[in-house]
User: What shape does this take?
Amino acid sequence: MRKTFLALLLAASVTPAFAQEKTFDLKISHWVPASHPLQKSLEVFPAQQLGKAFDHYDMARDGIADVTYVNPGYQPGRFPIIGAGELPFLMSDAKGGSEALDAWYRKYAGKEMKDVKFCLAFIHSPSSFHSRAKKIVVPDDIKGMKIRPAHATMASFVTLLGGTNVQSSAPEVRDIIERGVADAVTFPWGSLLLFGIDKVTKYDMDAPLYVTTFALVMNKDKYNEMSDRQKKAIDDNCNTEAAGRVGEP
Assistant: This one.
């Protein structure tokens, strides 16, 4: 992951070899904590400093940031094609799943994410339920619970099982569980520690239930300003192989 993001930054920000080329200093924004592996790879604006997690696609579109980390599932109905990757029991591991998602989605990205320069798509490791005061073992256990779903697909899953959805972005989950607004969350194991959820939950289901789809996108105007050589440097790090490198950690 570090190599991929560092390559993206260096591709456009290094001193150009030719006098006619412009140097670009890219603003990269994500919404996870500064302790996340994404942050360690380069100088970025973490933890929603430039905008809310829900807004990161539009931030790239509008040039608030040049490169952003997007969770398409945060905006139900807006990106239904990439949402197919969120179906339960579909993925077994993050590296292979990221490569499969990226290779499949590339033929649709130009239409569904036409406002930005699409770089790559990836997933986190297969994940499940983590709850505060009640074990979740069988489907009926969801009935009557207030659950923060990872995305719209999991929200539908929770509703079908008789639960109530509590919407929030990942950085806000600890607070809503601690205050009792939500009883449980659907999260990957690594994120429990990164967001401090392990401090407010007691029961965990260890099952590869679902994944979340993500995308790295770039401001289209910024990309179009670049020389052919600089665009190639970006494109060489926006591919299916890179998606696997990002998803694996």
Notes: The beta strands are 28-29, 67-70, 116-123, 128-131, 146-148, 164-165, 184-187, 203-204, 213-219. The first strand starts at residue 28 and ends at 29.
